[in-house]
Design brief:
Rossmann fold; 13 helices; Glycerate kinase, domain 2; six-stranded mixed sheet
Amino acid sequence: MRVLLAFDKFKDSLSARDACTFARAALLERHRDWTVDVCPLSDGGEGFSEILTTAARGQVIGSSVTGPREDAVQATIGMVPYDRVPVAARKFLPPPPERPRATPTVAVIDMASASGLALLEPEDRDPWETTTIGTGELIRTATELGAAAILLGVGGSATHDLGLGALVALGLELESARGQSVYPPIPARWREVNRIAGSVNPPVPPIRIACDVSNPLLGPNGAAATYGPQKGLRPADLPRLDHESARLALMLCGHCARPDALMETPGAGAAGGIAFGLMTAANAELVPGFDLVSAWLDLEPRLAAADLVITGEGRFDDSSLQGKGPGAVAARALALGKRVHVFAGTARATQPPANLAVHSITPEGMPLEQALRLASLNLARAVKAAF
């Protein structure tokens, strides 16, 4: 029996790699003769850089940067030689320089490691007070390391600053009516901002943002309305944050001589608008995140080779099969006629299709705090019970 293990993270409890590791150990305890192919997944959030860099045999470099509440955090940059990027994934990246003096590299960065929600305790989560400065510092460091291109995953952010923190780290300045610097450039201080000055300097290499959301920057489907509450935004503050976001966004478009219509671009609202900010001031482009990860990890041929596919994440419901990540893996495996098992912290699939078995790993009645703490044990037990 050839098994493909393709887990995404279990939010606040297990990384994708750890979930695969515990599930593999449990599976081989029951079936030592099975062949297990391990393929951790990422939606562009935690683990994006490490998973893609490791898969391509690149180098993971640590970097101390400014965290979402301005404390120092340890983040990572993956440096991958372009010729080690799987051919199928290269279409999502800018072409390498025609006559490079050295082997061109792609810097793989996940925003979550510098500006992520998981870096904060629940009581510290507040989009008015958080910043993407650290993500900009990672981009700057990758530039200094000589990256020919930057691939940025933007899942799991703690911020709603339109990427202005990152842009300030890259050379822009926010100024008050008296010409004084407004720093840190967090939304709580946006009312002081009268103009934007400076530019991204030195210029950064081409940036591609791995993104699977289609939200515009503003409005009822925008960044604040859709993702603000999970970052600590109070419902009463939504109109004010959206209003201030519109004012700063128009100011940034004017300063960079870019069309206001960029605010309406599907995906501009990703990660509190960092997609909009980097598109406007650094000419970044969006690429489909799951398609890129799937191509990078050679997921299609690995699915085809498997007799059994096991996937999962923190939550799985009826809408998951129309989504990305484990839901997309399950849907594709089912289309190939494979048997599929999904393990989730919370599983609420009421009518799973044939050949799909959905398991909730959390014992009934277990409090959430305990379930998060015991996720590895619960996952191992559920896998053993299923097989």
